[in-house]
Amino acid sequence: VSYATLHAGWAHLTFNTLVQVLVGLPLEMVHGSLRVGCIYLAGVVAGSLGTSVFDADVYLVGASGGVYALLAAHLANVLINYNTMQFAVVRLFAVAVVATVDMGFAMYDNFTRELMGLPVSYIAHLT
């Protein structure tokens, strides 16, 4: 679990912090701190387990497993409450853009990691 406190640079830390604030806080206001905290920690643990199974030869840093768990929870929240939620289409679009941009960056970095330094796991994003 402690790997979630480490990050692979300022861009990685900034992205994870922004998503936690922009997605985690609204979820916390609706569903409470305990539920959102459990989802976040489950994502961190799932990211660690997925990396140890599928990509064990790389370093594991960052809270991306927890961040993607928050994104998935927000997506589920919007889909379930679509008819009663304000700006539901905008929220769906925002989650899709954030996830797509981050996964695009992760894939780019994954293919160029030999040139840029130590190999970092991106399987945690998916698991």
Automatic annotation (TrEMBL):
It is found in: Membrane. Its main location: membrane. Keywords: Membrane, Transmembrane, Transmembrane helix. The chain crosses the membrane at residues 6-27, 34-54, 60-80, 87-108. InterPro entries: Peptidase_S54_rhomboid_dom, Rhomboid-like_sf, Rhomboid_IM_Serine_Proteases. It comes from the Eukaryota. It is a multi-pass membrane protein. One of its GO terms (cellular component) is membrane. Residues 1-126 form the Peptidase S54 rhomboid domain. GO terms for molecular function: serine-type endopeptidase activity. Belongs to the peptidase S54 family. This is Peptidase S54 rhomboid domain-containing protein.
